[in-house]
From TrEMBL:
Principal place of residence: endoplasmic reticulum
Coiled coil: none
Stored PANTHER family: AUXIN EFFLUX CARRIER FAMILY PROTEIN (PTHR31651:SF11), PTHR31651
Family classification: Belongs to the auxin efflux carrier (TC 2.A.69.2) family.
GO cellular component labels: endoplasmic reticulum membrane
Primary role: Involved in cellular auxin homeostasis by regulating auxin metabolism. Regulates intracellular auxin accumulation at the endoplasmic reticulum and thus auxin availability for nuclear auxin signaling.
Taxonomic lineage: Eukaryota, Viridiplantae, Streptophyta, Embryophyta, Tracheophyta
Protein name (Swiss-Prot/TrEMBL): Auxin efflux carrier family protein
Organism: Flemingia macrophylla
Length: 421
C-alpha cells in the first residue's frame, strides 16, 4: 500500500472518534439542553463501567483467547509498566525544568506517565481492521484479536492507574494543601491582628498535638513553609508503625478494589472461559447450550464504544471554560507524551521483536507501540476531583492533549502500518 492509502486507513478511526466526541461536547452544552450534563455523564459512565465494558471484554476474550495466547502475551504487562515508568521519568524531568505550581506538578507527571489504555484502544484498534486493505489479515480475525488486545490493555492500564498514578496525585495534593495552609502565615492582616491569626492557627493544629512556630520575619518565609511541610509529615510519623501499616492497607485495598472492578473481573473470567475448553464450549458457538448468553453479552458490548466516545467529548468540553495552565507546560506535556515517549516505545518494541519476545502477529506489535502514543488517561480527571486539587487545570491539559492526539495518533498509526506491513 502507498503512503496515502496507509494514511487513509490510519486516519479513519481517529476521525470517527473526533466526530462522535464533537457530538458529545455539543450535547454537554445548552444548545442541546445539557443532554450530557455532569450528572448525566456520571450516570452514563457508571452504566458503561458496570455493564457495557464488562460485556464487551468477556464476550471478546471468551471467544478468541486461548491458554496459548495468554502465555504468548506475557510481554504486554511489561510493556504497560514501561510506559508508566518512562513516562513518569519524563514528567519528573518536566517538573524540574518548568518548576510549575505544586498544584500542577502531580498532573504533569500523571499526564506524561498514564496513557489511555482502555477507551481509545477499544475504539481505534478494532476500527483499523474494518478498513479495506489493512495489513493485519482477514477482517474478522483481525477485529477479534484487536478487541482481545485492547481489552487486556484496559485491564492492565486500570491496575497501574489506580496504584501508581493514584499515589502520585494523592501525594502531590497533600503537599500542596500543606503549603496552601502555610500561606496563611504570609497573608496581610485584615480583620484580625497578627497575634489572633497565629492563635487561631495554633488552635487548629493543636488537634494533632503539633505547634506551628511563629513567623519571625519575611526573609524566613521559605524556611517556615518547609518546616510546616515537615510538621505535616511529623503528624503522620508520630503514629509510628500504625501509620505505616495504615498506608499499606490503604494501598492494598485500593489495588484489590481495582482487581475486583467489573472490567478487570470480566477480563479474568474471559481468560478462564477462553482457556478452559469445556467452559468455552458451553457458551461459545452455534451449538453451545448457553450460546444465548454470549450473544446477549455481545449485544450489550456494542454500546460501549459510542457511549465511551460521547463521554470523552462531554468531559473534554470542560477544558474550554478555563485557561489556567501555562502554554509552555501544555506544549511540553504534548511533546513528551505524544512524541518522545512513542519514539522510545517504538525502539523498545522493535528490539523485543528482534529478540523473539513477541508473538509473530504484527497487530500485537502495533498495539504495544500505540500504548506509548495514547493521550493521558481520563481517570486523571476523576482523581483530581477526588482530591479537589487542579480540577480546572486537569480539564485544560486533557483538552489540549486530546486535540493534539488527533494528529499524533494518525501520524503514528500511519507510520506503524507502513513499518509492519
Amino acid at each position: 500500500m502507498g503512503f496515502l492509502e496507509l494514511m487513509e486507513v490510519a486516519s479513519m478511526p481517529v476521525i470517527q472518534v473526533l466526530l462522535i466526541s464533537a457530538l458529545g461536547a455539543l450535547m454537554a452544552t445548552q444548545y442541546f439542553d445539557n443532554l450530557l450534563s455532569a450528572d448525566t455523564r456520571k450516570a452514563l459512565n457508571k452504566i458503561v463501567f458496570l455493564v457495557f465494558t464488562p460485556s464487551l471484554v468477556f464476550a471478546s476474550f471468551a471467544k478468541s483467547v486461548s491458554l496459548e495466547d495468554m502465555i504468548s502475551w506475557w510481554f504486554m504487562p511489561v510493556n504497560v509498566g514501561l510506559t508508566f515508568l518512562i513516562g513518569g521519568i519524563l514528567g519528573w524531568i518536566l517538573v524540574k525544568l518548568l518548576k510549575p505550581n505544586l498544584k500542577v506538578e502531580g498532573l504533569i507527571i500523571a499526564a506524561c506517565s498514564s496513557g489511555n489504555m482502555g477507551n481509545l484502544p477499544i475504539v481505534i484498534i478494532p476500527a483499523i481492521c474494518d478498513e479495506k486493505g489493512g495489513p493485519f489479515g482477514a477482517r474478522d480475525v483481525c477485529h477479534s484479536n484487536a478487541l482481545s488486545y485492547a481489552s487486556f490493555s484496559m485491564a492492565l492500564g486500570g491496575v497501574f492507574i489506580w496504584t501508581y498514578t493514584f499515589q502520585v496525585i494523592r501525594s502531590r495534593s497533600k503537599k500542596f494543601k500543606a503549603l496552601e495552609a502555610a500561606e496563611i502565615l504570609k497573608l496581610p492582616n485584615r480583620d484580625l491582628d497578627a497575634n489572633e491569626a497565629t492563635h487561631l492557627l495554633k488552635d487548629k493544629v493543636s488537634e494533632n498535638t503539633v505547634e506551628v512556630p511563629p513567623l519571625t520575619c519575611v526573609g524566613d518565609t521559605e524556611n517556615q513553609i518547609v518546616r510546616i511541610v515537615d510538621q505535616d509529615q511529623t503528624i503522620v510519623s508520630n503514629k509510628g508503625t500504625e501509620s505505616f501499616w495504615h498506608k499499606m492497607v490503604e494501598v492494598v485495598s485500593q489495588l484489590v478494589a481495582e482487581l475486583m472492578s467489573p472490567p478487570v473481573m470480566a477480563t479474568f473470567l474471559g481468560f478462564l472461559f477462553g482457556a478452559v475448553r469445556w467452559l468455552r464450549s458451553i457458551i461459545v458457538g452455534d451449538n453451545a447450550p448457553l450460546h444465548v448468553i454470549q450473544d446477549t453479552l455481545q449485544l450489550l458490548g456494542e454500546g460501549t464504544i459510542p457511549c465511551i466516545t460521547l463521554l470523552l467529548g462531554g468531559n473534554l468540553s470542560q477544558g474550554l471554560k478555563s485557561s489556567s495552565v501555562n502554554p509552555l507546560t501544555l506544549i511540553s506535556i504534548i511533546i513528551a507524551r505524544l512524541f518522545v515517549l512513542p519514539v522510545i516505545g517504538f525502539f523498545i518494541v522493535r528490539e523485543a521483536a528482534k529478540l523473539g519476545l513477541l508473538p509473530v502477529d504484527p497487530l500485537f506489535q502495533y498495539v504495544l507501540v500505540m500504548q506509548y502514543a495514547m493521550p493521558p488517561a481520563m481517570n486523571i480527571s476523576t482523581m483530581a476531583q477526588l482530591f479537589d486539587v487542579g480540577n480546572e487545570e486537569c480539564s485544560v491539559i486533557l483538552l489540549w492533549t486530546y486535540g493534539a492526539a488527533a494528529i499524533a495518533l494518525t501520524s503514528w498509526s500511519t507510520f506503524l502500518l507502513w513499518a509492519l506491513s
